[in-house]
Structures are given as structure tokens and as C-alpha cells.
Amino acid sequence: MDLVLLCVFLPLVTVAWGQYGDYYYGPYNYGDNDEWVNVYRQGFNFQCPHGQVIVAIRSVFNKKEGSDRLWNYACMPAAQSLGEPTECWWEEINRAGTEWYQTCSNNGLVAGFQSQYFPSVLDREWQFYCCRYSRRCPYSCWLTTEHPGHYGEDMDMMMYTYDHYIRGATTTFSAVDRDRQWKFIVCRMTEYDCPFQNV
């Protein structure tokens, strides 16, 4: 009897496990030797390859280096149902030393970051590099928890589910710790054209 049950349930478990794996990303490759995209107190510009979007963000804080952070990003191709990006652009600059909230305009998805360090405020200004995919619209949007959990901690934010995309962020800035906490705006995208220019 046990052999019969094993023969019946083993294929079901195998199929279920295989389907489960299709919906979640594996470990992220942040590049060769997990190199950082910047050095302390320097500007940087990071863009995903064409047709890819940001899916993971890693950062470490160093108070001795001007309360600055090292940054690294991972990209993955957007779902095939979105097609190719129809246009990409840099959003407006978010000033150093202030709190801010920004989403990619024109229903865009975050495909890069640009940042410049300002020693006078021990903080960075930020810009998102955004790409629009045809006339797809976001839905089921939500904010992640704070990254890092506390000012001055290391940060490792990953998109665990396929078909969810970063559309922007809101940040708080601590004048005491000279650091930021980020909440990322995450959305799904329609698989059909929608009539709205900006949602």
C-alpha cells in the first residue's frame, strides 16, 4: 500500500514543486565578485541593460566615510508579456537632506539609479532611471517595509515574486544619523494596453 501511495503522490509533489519555482527568483547576481557601483563620497550612475529592471538593492553604511553608503543593484528581464521598453528617461532630482516621495512618471518602472554625494549635508541626491513598456498600467501597488530596518544598518531588499516591479520610493532622512530609510513602491503591471497616461 505504501508503494502505491508513493507512486501516486511523488509525481504530484514534483509538479507542484516545479510550478512553485517558476514564481520566485533565485539568488541575485550583483555582478562580478559582488562589487559595489560606487566608492564612498562619490557620485554614480547605474542602469540595467535594455529590457531589464531593478529587482534587488544592497547597501552598507559607514559613519567614518561621511555617513555614506556603498550601493549595488541586480537586474532581471521584465516579463515577456510587457514587451520591449518603448522609452526610457531620468526623473527629476530628489534633493539631499530632505524626505521625498517619487514614482516613475508615465507608468514607468525603475531600471536604474543616479546619485551624487554632498559633504555639506552628509547625504545624497537621487534620480530614478525609468522605462515605459508600451501602454501597460500598474495595479495592486504597495509599499515595502523600511530598508534598512534602522538607520545605519546594512540593507538588502529583494523582489521575491516574479511579475512585481519597483515603480518608485519614499524615503525619510535622519539629521542625527545622517542616513536614509527607504520604502519601495512595488506594483504589478497589466498584460494589456490601458488608456491611462499616468497612474
TrEMBL record:
<dbReference type="InterPro" id="IPR026645">
    <property type="entry name" value="Dermatopontin"/>
</dbReference>
<keyword id="KW-0732">Signal</keyword>
<dbReference type="GO" id="GO:0005615">
    <property type="term" value="C:extracellular space"/>
</dbReference>
<feature type="signal peptide">
    <location>
        <begin position="1"/>
        <end position="18"/>
    </location>
</feature>
<dbReference type="GO" id="GO:0031012">
    <property type="term" value="C:extracellular matrix"/>
</dbReference>
<comment type="similarity">
    <text>Belongs to the dermatopontin family.</text>
</comment>
<protein>
    <submittedName>
        <fullName>Dermatopontin</fullName>
    </submittedName>
</protein>
<dbReference type="GO" id="GO:0008285">
    <property type="term" value="P:negative regulation of cell population proliferation"/>
</dbReference>
<keyword id="KW-0964">Secreted</keyword>
<dbReference type="GO" id="GO:0030199">
    <property type="term" value="P:collagen fibril organization"/>
</dbReference>
<keyword id="KW-1015">Disulfide bond</keyword>
<dbReference type="Pfam" id="PF14704">
    <property type="entry name" value="DERM"/>
</dbReference>
